[in-house]
Amino acid sequence: MYSIDQQLKNKKVELREAYEKELREKTPKCSEKSQRIVKELMKKSLKNVFEMLDSDKNGLVDYENQNMRQLPKHVQEALSDWFEKMKDLKSQQNFEQFYQSAIKILKVFILILNLEFLELN
User: Which CATH architecture has domain 31-120?
Assistant: First the structure.
């Protein structure tokens, strides 16, 4: 039984590594300068979102004082889990914390888009 379990684990690792390699090979590459520009634009966009959410303009977004209704619907949907977590924890975040949370969310979306891209090809 141990041998079968170990073989299954090894196969999972092998498949994940093969998938990640295929994903890296099929993902379009860009220069460091382009990556920096995209990162700066993303940070500016997220700063705008943060400023909309910071209703009392104290530099913090908390579960009670956030203007979620001011955001476009697709942004509200993307951040819905984040808002729920904020409510559950009754917490607040400054911009840097919000930025890190948003980047994690964006990485998941990028992974989903890459999966969809692989399925189409």
Answer: Orthogonal Bundle (1.10)
The token pair at 6 is 């170990």
* CA atoms within 13 Å, Cβ hemisphere of 81: 7
Q: What is the dihedral of CA 105, 109, 115, 118, to 10 degrees?
A: -130
Domain ranges of the chain: 1-28, 31-120
pLDDT at 42 over 70: yes
Tell whether pTM > 0.85. Answer: no
**pLDDT above 70 (res 118):** no
Confidence tier at 2 by pLDDT (50, 70, 90): low
Query: What per-residue string of b and e applies to 12-50 under the rule 16 or more CB within 10 Å gives b?
Result: eeeeeeeeeeeeeeeeeeeeeeeeeeeeeeeeeebeebb
